[in-house]
């Protein structure tokens, strides 16, 4: 090989090929391998931006200076420039981090006006390493793992990165098999209209359930497929599957809901995505309006024009185009000027402080109003609480999705979901035949939800509904239920999801019954003249959760009902969890009954109806009123009365009030972001609850401040518990960042140094301020002096 073919012409260092050849010989040398060797991979982040700002000549000078610094500090073995701003070193493993930090300081000093970030990945060569290329790849992976980590300069290759590499290789080499064998499935998360809470569509999400690695998070496999330029395989599969599922849903009589599908920037460079989508839509014979195209804001920085051209083609072809993650970047409004969108989709994580920051609320309210004025709809994702839903109503957001409305579901679960909410396609009801006419027509076939029913079964259903419509007792009981359950849209919908049972208690017979729209409980049908007691036994056994079987069985027990009637109790009610479908979680059910005497017999009229959403909303409101939504601890409004009450009734023994806060919390938010700060608060709250929650009141007061009140505690035990916080450095891993922090504490003893709540609070706060004045991570007992 000629000399000029071995040298990088800009820096004078060895080039990639020369380095690999020379380094391979070095690690093959048994004497040299007795020493500890490392591979170091250097990378300058965003070097293209440096060239763009200062020019290519300045960029070349920067790289020349960097190469001289690396060569000077790592002069013992071998230094090379692999490509662009990437340098690789083979060196002895002494003072590695200190020497890398020295390079970093020099690099930062080349141009003080440039915010240059340098990263380094280190691989410590094992004695049995024989392939220099593989060793370099491991150093490169260690470097890449901290690419977006602020203020982290060095990462040493470890088992975690090794596992990540192995998993990445597995994902890249097995994506085709995963698609073919059904390991990758399409899940659907409901989208609802904010004002009504009614479903108006779904988002398609990929889920990989692997036989070897189990459940793979989308945040793991999607970036790997994007980096490997294989993401088009996944996204093309999702589009085809969605179109097939829509065709299947509508073929079963379900109302057609549009589905949004996510695309990556890489998709548009690998395939003609318009053709991929259009072929799937056409082959399944579904309307284009049922497929919406989602593009993340970060993908819209494509400068080639391919993405914009394809987006325009989608809109001209009759598809909606949505911007996902609006507001996550810095060019959102320029993108609105340059691109046309039908929907702006933003994550509620950008609005997590809406309750405490009116300014933030005002900004987003104006963004939503602006979108409306230019004809773009808005959609909020990540909605998890009733409070958030109410907020979206106030600011005028049109659509929402999140766990509050429904989690991502498999295709089978979507069917159950649509059944549960009565989303079958409805025909023209303007000329409905009368029930009595249908009953008398032997040739009539009613096209209801279950088209496999026989004519006799259809007539039986009509007879049930006719009986209920003429029953004064059913009307009386249903009126109570319908009034309590305002989320039902109509009396007809309420009727579909209720159970109405009439039983002759005297002779243990069913007289009449309507078992919801499916006319059965799980897989069992019941008819008149069946035994009431046998039916109840089966219902309790098969549909009531284990913890409540005893109470429900007693409630429906025939002997108890007769005895209660003769004791003057002719009506009662109960709430319990009913298993509506084995594929979904049990749902809250309310049952009410009334017993009357008819022709010398005791006849019981039972009505059961679903109250799951009502109960969950009520429980959520109660929880939100008592608990802090971020940490799950008591909020100030709940904790203060509880503490006052305990102080009022205290007779003897000692109690303590403790004030704590996270040191330098604002710096954590500034360096790592507010989501990382929230994770720190959640972790410290969990630890507080673990240490003090069993016998104390733990409260999140505000921001990074916490309040604890504990009774009947020895001071030595109290100090031991407090010392588990103060004097320690905690670490929380958030994504790729390891966040260190300390906690300061101040406390006061009751009744030694304080009496009422305000007195204790003031003194605990003073002790905290005193502790913080002496440094971070300290604790201080209140001192009168």
Give the SSE layout.
Blueprint: H1 16-28, H2 30-33, E1 37-45, H3 47-54, H4 56-73, E2 78-83, E3 86-92, H5 96-110, E4 117-124, H6 132-144, E5 154-156, H7 159-180, E6 184-193, E7 199-210, E8 214-216, H8 218-227, H9 231-251, E9 259-263, H10 265-270, H11 273-283, E10 291-296, H12 306-316, E11 320-324, H13 332-338, E12 343-347, H14 358-373, E13 377-381, H15 386-395, E14 399-400, H16 411-420, H17 435-439, H18 455-470, H19 472-484, H20 491-496, E15 498-504, E16 509-515, H21 532-543, H22 549-556, H23 558-566, E17 571-578, E18 587-598, E19 601-610, H24 612-626, H25 636-649, E20 655-662, H26 665-672, H27 674-692, E21 696-702, E22 705-710, H28 715-723, E23 730-734, E24 737-741, E25 743-750, H29 757-773, E26 779-781
Parallel strand pairs: 4-5, 7-9, 9-10, 10-11, 11-12, 12-13, 13-14, 25-26
Antiparallel strand pairs: 1-3, 1-4, 2-3, 6-7, 6-14, 7-8, 15-16, 15-19, 17-18, 18-19, 20-22, 20-25, 21-22, 23-24
Helix pairs in contact: 3-4, 4-5, 9-11, 21-22, 26-27
């Amino acid at each position: 090989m000629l000399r000029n073919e071995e040298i990088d012409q800009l820096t004078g260092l060895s080039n990639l090929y020369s380095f690999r050849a020379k380094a391979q010989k070095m690690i093959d040398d048994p004497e040299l391998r007795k020493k500890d060797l490392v591979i170091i991979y250097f990378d300058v982040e965003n070097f293209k931006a440096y060239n763009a700002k200062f020019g290519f000549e300045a960029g070349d000078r920067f790289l020349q200076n960097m190469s001289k610094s690396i060569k000077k500090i790592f002069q013992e073995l071998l230094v090379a420039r692999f490509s662009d701003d990437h340098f690789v070193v083979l060196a002895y493993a002494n003072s590695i981090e200190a020497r890398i930090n020295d390079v970093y300081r020099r690099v930062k000093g080349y141009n003080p006006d440039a915010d240059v970030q340098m990263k380094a990945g280190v691989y410590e060569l094992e004695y049995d390493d024989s392939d220099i290329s593989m060793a370099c790849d491991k150093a490169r992976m260690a470097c890449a793992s901290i690419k977006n980590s602020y203020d982290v300069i060095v990462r040493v290759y470890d088992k975690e990165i090794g596992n990540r590499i192995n998993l990445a290789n597995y994902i890249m080499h097995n994506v085709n098999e995963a698609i073919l064998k059904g390991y990758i499935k399409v899940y659907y998360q409901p989208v609802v209209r904010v004002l009504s809470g009614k479903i108006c569509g779904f988002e398609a999400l990929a889920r990989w359930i692997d036989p070897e690695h189990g459940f793979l998070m989308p945040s793991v496999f999607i970036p790997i497929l994007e980096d490997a330029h294989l993401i088009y395989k996944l996204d093309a599969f999702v589009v085809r599957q969605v179109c097939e599922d829509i065709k299947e849903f509508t073929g079963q009589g379900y109302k057609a809901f549009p589905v949004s599908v996510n695309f990556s920037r890489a998709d548009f460079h690998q395939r003609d995505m318009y053709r991929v989508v259009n072929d799937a839509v056409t082959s399944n014979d579904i309307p284009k309006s049922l497929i919406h195209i989602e593009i993340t804001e970060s993908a819209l920085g494509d400068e080639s024009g391919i993405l914009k051209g394809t987006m325009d083609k989608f809109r001209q072809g009759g598809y909606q185009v949505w911007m996902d993650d609006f507001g996550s970047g810095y060019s959102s409004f320029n993108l609105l000027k340059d691109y046309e969108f039908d929907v702006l989709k933003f994550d509620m994580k950008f609005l997590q402080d809406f309750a405490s920051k009116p300014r933030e609320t005002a900004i987003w309210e104006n963004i939503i109003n602006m979108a409306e004025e230019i004809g773009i709809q808005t959609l909020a994702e990540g909605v998890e609480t009733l409070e958030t839903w109410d907020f979206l109503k106030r600011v005028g957001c049109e659509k929402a999705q999140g766990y509050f409305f429904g989690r991502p579901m498999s295709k089978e679960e979507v069917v159950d979901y649509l059944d549960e909410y009565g989303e079958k396609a409805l025909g023209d009801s303007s000329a409905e035949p009368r029930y009595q006419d249908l009953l008398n027509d032997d040739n009539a076939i009613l096209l209801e939800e279950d088209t496999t029913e026989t004519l006799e079964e259809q007539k039986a259903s009509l007879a049930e509904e006719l009986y209920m419509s003429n029953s004064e007792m059913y009307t009386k009981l249903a009126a109570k239920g319908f009034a309590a359950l305002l989320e039902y849209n109509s009396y007809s919908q309420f009727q579909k999801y209720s159970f109405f049972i009439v039983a002759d208690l005297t002779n243990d017979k069913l007289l009449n019954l309507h078992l919801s729209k499916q006319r059965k409980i799980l897989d069992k049908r019941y008819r008149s003249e069946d035994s009431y007691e046998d039916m109840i036994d089966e219902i309790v056994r098969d549909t009531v959760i284990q913890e409540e079987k005893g109470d429900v069985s007693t409630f429906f027990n025939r002997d108890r009902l007769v005895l209660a009637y003769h004791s003057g109790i002719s009506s009662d009610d109960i709430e319990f969890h009913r298993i509506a479908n084995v594929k979904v979680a049990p749902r809250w059910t309310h049952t009410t009954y009334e017993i009357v005497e008819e022709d010398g017999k005791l006849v019981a009229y039972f009505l059961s109806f679903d109250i799951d959403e009502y109960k969950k909303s009520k429980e959520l409101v109660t929880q939100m009123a008592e608990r802090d939504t971020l940490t799950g601890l008591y909020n100030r409004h709940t904790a203060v009365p509880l503490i006052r009450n305990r102080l009022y009734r205290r007779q003897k023994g000692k109690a303590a009030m403790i004030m704590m806060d996270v040191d330098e919390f604002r710096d954590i938010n500034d360096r790592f972001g507010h989501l990382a700060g929230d994770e720190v608060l959640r972790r410290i709250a969990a630890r507080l609850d673990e240490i003090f929650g069993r016998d104390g009141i733990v409260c999140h007061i505000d921001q990074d401040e916490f309040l604890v009140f504990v009774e009947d505690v020895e001071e030595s035990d109290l100090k031991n518990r407090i010392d588990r916080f103060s004097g320690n450095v905690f670490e929380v891993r958030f994504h790729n960042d390891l966040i260190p922090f300390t906690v300061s504490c101040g406390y006061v003893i009751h009744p030694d140094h304080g009496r009422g709540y305000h007195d204790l609070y003031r003194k605990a706060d003073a002790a905290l301020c005193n502790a913080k004045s002496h440094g971070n991570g300290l604790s201080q007992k209140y001192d009168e002096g």
